[in-house]
Structure of BLOC-1-related complex subunit 6 C-terminal helix domain-containing protein:
Amino acid sequence: MEAGAESDVDRPVDSDSPAAEESGSNQNSGGRSEPSPSNQREILRTLSTVEKDSKAIAESFSSLFVSLRSTLSEATSSSVDHMGCFGDAAGRLQETALDASTKGNRYINSCLRLNEEIKGVENLAARKHLRRNVDVLDTAVNKLLRPP
């Protein structure tokens, strides 16, 4: 090549300059210039790196979602188990409270019956006490009326 040709390549090309028209052969139909083979290799390496990083990120997200799904499943299962246990405990508590209430009612009814019976016994005791007093009085009167 001639020395002048090299200087044209090294200079920036204005889109209005005649050099831009000459360099039009290196442009594709979109108006962009095609990268050189070394630039293409660098672009491909960068794309490969981006692809590997994207794949690693996707795998990381996939692992995260699997872990979250597993943890949520365990939490849900644990919550269901706890709710079942709570239901059983509440049922047993209800049965125990009902049993205690029934026994309490029986005790109260027994106390009321005992109270009624004691009232009858009190009347009997009062009669017996009265009878004893009458007997003592009768004995005293007998002693006074019949001297020994």
Q: What stands out?
A: The CA atoms of residues 112 and 118 lie 10 Å apart. Confidence is low (pLDDT under 50) at residues 1-27. Residues 38-116 form one domain.
